[in-house]
Amino acid sequence: MRLLLKVEDVFNITGRGLTLAPAIPDNLGLAIRPKDRIQLRTPNGRALDTHIASFSLSRPIGSGPTIVALELPSDIRRDDVPIGTEVWLLLPNE
Question: Interior CA angle at 81 toward 77 and 84, to 5°?
């Protein structure tokens, strides 16, 4: 497993579903793809296995790495991802 981010905000994009903030830099040294398995670990100890539904790429103004905003499947509700939730990438052999 590899920690991708700790959720600071969750917002809904119409037609796309929940998007997590902060976005993560794309220079982590691993490829992240839609359908990759992730685990959401909430501050109260709940663990929820799901997957990346999609993601958005953005390049900051000026210099800096491209960032990746993770989008979750439609069955994940905002209440499932409270602020402080850790998002872990489940590696293929896990």
Answer: 165
What end-to-end distance do the CA atoms of the chain give, in Å? 7
> For residues 71 and 54, what is the distance between their CA atoms, to the nearest angstrom?
5
Instruction: Please tell me which residue, 62 or 35, carries the higher pLDDT value.
Output: 35
Question: Do strands 2-6 and 47-51 pair parallel, antiparallel, or not at all (unpaired)?
Answer: unpaired
> Cβ distance 94 to 53 under 8 Å?
no
Give me the helices (H) in the chain, please.
Answer: none
Classified as helix, coil or strand, 21 is strand
For residue 68, report the phi and psi dihedrals to the nearest 5 degrees.
Answer: -120, 120
pTM of the full structure: 0.84
Tokens of 8: 């600071």
Of 88, 73, 9, 79, residue with least CA distance to 41: 88
